[in-house]
Amino acid sequence: xxxxxxxxxxxxxxxxxxxxxxxxxxxxxxxxxxxxxxxxxxxxxxxxxxxxxxxxxxxxxxxxxxxxxxxxxxxxxxxxxxxxxxxxxxxxxxxxxxxxxxxxxxxxxxxxxxxxxxxxxxxxxxxxxxxxxxxxxxxxxxxxxxxxxxxxxxxxxxxxxxxxxxxxxxxxxxxxxxxxxxxxxxxxxxxxxxxxxxxxxxxxxxxxxxxxxxxxxxxxxxxxxxxxxxxxxxxxxxxxxxxxxxxxxxxxxxx
Length: 255
Hints:
Strand content: 15-25%
Oligomer: single chain
Order of helices and strands: EEEHEHEEEEHEEHHHHHH
Shape: globular
CATH class of the largest domain: Alpha Beta
Structural class: alpha/beta
Number of strands: 10
Radius of gyration: 21 Å
Number of helices: 9
Distance between the termini: 35 Å
């Protein structure tokens, strides 16, 4: 998509900006910071916004509505699940006009989730509680929930979820949870395989497997599960790489 004139300025305001005094630190949404300065940073620029249904200010007003009113907002860009979070993962969605702003909203592809990329298990994507549910058809909610709680993942607890023939758990995550969130997916996948007496990776289509492997970072989990490696062994196998990554990442952290 092309725009004449000045080079388009892409701005992502879903994140937050940290502001601090000598004695207290406070988190402010980026859009609130912009609003407090009269949108001075964006004056005179052609602006493109990366956003979805979570893009709101502290009063609940949609970010794209505020920017359309106060700056020269010329285009919207959305992540994988679309502007309202209702599109299916990995599906092509053509550009369309946003009824709130009148702009065209093209799509960027950005894979999210891990176990959900097999699409046999469900993660609540597009529902009222996105990524707060892990469930699959044929899974017994109580058995699955008891197993997940028995892993004692720090700061994360599970309660039964049932929806017709689909069973699993709600996730309850404490704000300062120390649990390895990627590990949650591996424990859940292993338990679903055990309970359903199947291999969800092996029975998935090639397209879904490829997406899962991209999210996971390698194809190693396929052979690990095939030879009977348990979830604890798989997660422990990441330890050295995780330490190395955290060391390399530290120089780039802003706060």
